[in-house]
Design brief:
Rossmann fold, about 290 residues, binds S-adenosylmethionine, about 15% strand
């Protein structure tokens, strides 16, 4: 069976405050069906490479999971999530009061691209969110602002910055704070720790790591070949029973997961040229 996106990215961006290049919100129905196969109540759902966590927040909001475990190794992405979850009122205030113009974009770009911060910082989190909402295709690394540097394009910098809608999304996240655990670990460490940290029998892991062959620098890529191999060892540990993995269609991945179910996944990226990337969706044969 080939899994094809049922929704356009635009239709499903409406729950996560992020726009994410290659975001997987469109898989939420498919993941919901996977969750339904897990017996028992109070299901958990974990994303070791969460990015914008598009599918995760939809599943939480629709009541299909009780507990989310979100992890991202990028301190900028982590700070944005932590700022929204731990300081939602301050974040919402900022969403309503910030000037959505080139001056703030330059500030955010400076903070995000030049910061040496290694631990949580509210401004770093807000700047990451701001850049994500105001840059082309939601790319936070070195992408220009929507509308161009001179703001002469048809769409202007504030085209994706609907203060009311974004404020509501962040407010809602704050209201479900106790149902979300957030970590800033390497994805492999996160999975190793999950073996003892989460109830494995009722947890679905959705794993969406950076591509083996990255097409461009869309987000942090803290993976390399040995780590892709190590990830396949962890996922194929029989203790991890319920998982879904997406990857680029690469010979290394076909070989590492040859014992599992591999299907094609049609994804139209929300990048400007709408290029088609070949991606695969992998599930354990026993899953
Ligand atoms: C493909 S994106 C995930 C997109 C996400 N599924 C969505 O729908 O928005 C990959 C994410 O992994 C993060 N990342 C990169 N290397 C990592 C690592 N070694 N451990 C954990 N996270 C990592 C990046 O910061 C990025 O946010």
């Amino acid at each position: 069976m080939t899994v094809t996106p049922k929704y356009t990215a635009g239709e499903l961006r409406s729950v996560s405050p992020f726009r994410y290049p290659g975001g997987k919100a469109f898989l939420s129905d498919f993941l919901a069906a996977k969750l339904a196969l897990i017996k028992g109540r109070s299901k958990h759902y974990a994303e070791p490479f969460c990015g914008g966590a598009g599918a995760a927040v939809i599943l939480l909001k629709s009541g299909l999971v009780d507990q989310l475990h979100l992890n991202d190794a990028d301190i900028r992405v982590y700070s944005a999530w932590k700022a929204m979850l731990d300081e939602p009122a301050r974040f919402v205030d900022r969403v309503h009061s910030v000037s959505v113009d080139m001056r703030t974009w330059q500030w955010a770009s400076e903070v995000v691209n030049k910061s040496n911060l290694k631990s949580y910082d509210f401004d770093l989190g807000f700047a990451t969110f701001f850049l994500n909402r105001t840059s082309r295709s939601g790319i936070i690394f070195r992408a220009g602002p929507i509308g161009g540097y001179n703001q002469t394009g048809n769409w202007k910098i504030d085209a994706r910055f609907n203060r009311t809608a974004l404020g509501e999304r962040v407010h809602w996240l704050g209201s479900v704070r106790e149902r979300i655990t957030l970590t800033n670990e390497d994805g492999l460490t996160f999975l190793h720790r999950s073996l003892i940290r989460v109830p494995l029998a009722k947890t679905l892991f959705f794993v969406d790591p950076p591509y083996v062959q990255a097409g461009g620098r869309l987000y942090l890529n803290a993976m390399n070949e040995p780590k892709h191999i190590a990830l396949s060892d962890i996922l194929q540990n029989p203790k991890l029973r319920h998982w879904v993995l997406t990857y680029d269609d690469h010979p290394l991945i076909r070989s590492l997961y040859q014992a599992q179910n591999i299907e094609n996944l049609g994804v139209t990226y929300s990048l400007q040229n709408k290029r088609k990337e070949r991606e695969v969706l992998i599930q354990p044969v026993s899953g």
